[in-house]
Design goal:
The protein is mainly α. The chain has a domain of about 70 residues: Glycoprotein, Type 4 Pilin (2-Layer Sandwich), CATH 3.30.700. The protein has 1 helix and 2 strands; from the N terminus they run H-E-E. The chain has a two-stranded antiparallel sheet with strand order 1-2. A hairpin with a 2-residue loop joins strand 1 and strand 2. The termini are far apart. The relative contact order is 0.12.
């Protein structure tokens, strides 16, 4: 009698197939990660721009009352010691302390006579570079 050998058919995936699927998933995941990081960077820049615009609005109200821009951003929250009686109508911001930018840096503020400039130094943490954010 001759024995008939049957080949058993294996079910499942080969190691190559599993590795190929893993490689594809890693590539797709990296694309998704890059898109998320780009969106987060844009959101932080927009947040800084909105905050700068908020400061500008408060500074403009301060200027309407005091006829000069504040000497520091703190003057928007607390009445300056040298303020003329009855002119300061603040606080001009509804926060207890001046917020930091999205990268945890202080906003830069300078006054030149009746003009002022306010900006965020951006993600690199250095003033005067291309990533500085103003209105």
């Amino acid at each position: 009698m001759q024995r008939k050998t049957r080949r058993r058919r294996r079910s499942g995936f080969t190691l190559i197939e599993v590795l190929l699927v893993l490689v594809i998933l890693v590539i797709l995941g990296s694309f998704a990660g890059l898109a998320i990081f780009a969106a987060q960077k844009q959101a932080l820049v927009k947040q800084a721009k909105v905050q700068v615009l908020s400061f500008e609005g408060a500074i403009d109200f301060y200027k309407l009352n005091m006829n000069i821009p504040p000497q520091s951003l703190q003057d928007l929250i607390e009445q300056p010691a040298d303020a003329k009686s009855g002119k300061w109508q603040g606080p001009y911001l509804t926060v207890k302390e001046i917020p930091k930018d999205p990268w945890e840096n202080d906003y830069e503020y300078e006054v030149n006579g009746a003009e002022y400039n306010i900006w965020s130094i951006g993600p690199d943490g250095s003033s005067g570079t291309d990533d500085d954010i103003s209105s």
